[in-house]
Amino acid sequence: MGRDKSIRIHLLFLLVVTAVFIWSFIQPEGYLIWTMEVLPAVAVLIIVIAAYNKFRLTTLSYIIIANLSIAMFIGAHYTYSKVPLFNWIKDYFDLNRNHYDRFGHFLKGLFAITLSFALAIGTLYEIIEWLASIISKCGKALGTQGDFWDAQRDMSLTLIGSIIVLLILSKLHNKLLIKKDFSID
């Protein structure tokens, strides 16, 4: 892929992610929880944008970052336990809870660069949820929805997603890295 074409594609990703970010900000479930849930994605996006000219990633990496950011912005807008599509799935299949947070953990696993990085990020999220529940004195962690084993199930889905991506995308990503010209004009 030519350099100019890849830059245009990267800008398109940025435009889509920015549009979803703006949408997520408009009347979210709550602005405090929205801020807490979008902050990690915004921090990553700021770093990636700041480093773009000096350290360009592959287009596959930008696709991954864009998808994860969008998933986080959607979860932040509704809160993870109230995403409408997953409420419909919950009702249709007579499930006990909305599984968007587990879907998010699975995506983190799918899109993580390495297994250990994915598990570290997943663990950090679980610790943040636990600390938030202690600080807010609500008595139960934010994303558990009454499930005592929520953190373990979330981490398992992160692990499964990571293993799947390592098996499926490693060779593709390595080919993209070999083809990539790392010089900056």
From TrEMBL:
Regions crossing the membrane: 7-26, 32-52, 59-80, 110-135
Keyword rRNA-binding assigned: no
Alphabetized UniProt keyword annotations: Membrane, Transmembrane, Transmembrane helix
Keyword hit for Cell division: no
Protein name per the record: Membrane protein
Record organism: Peribacillus huizhouensis
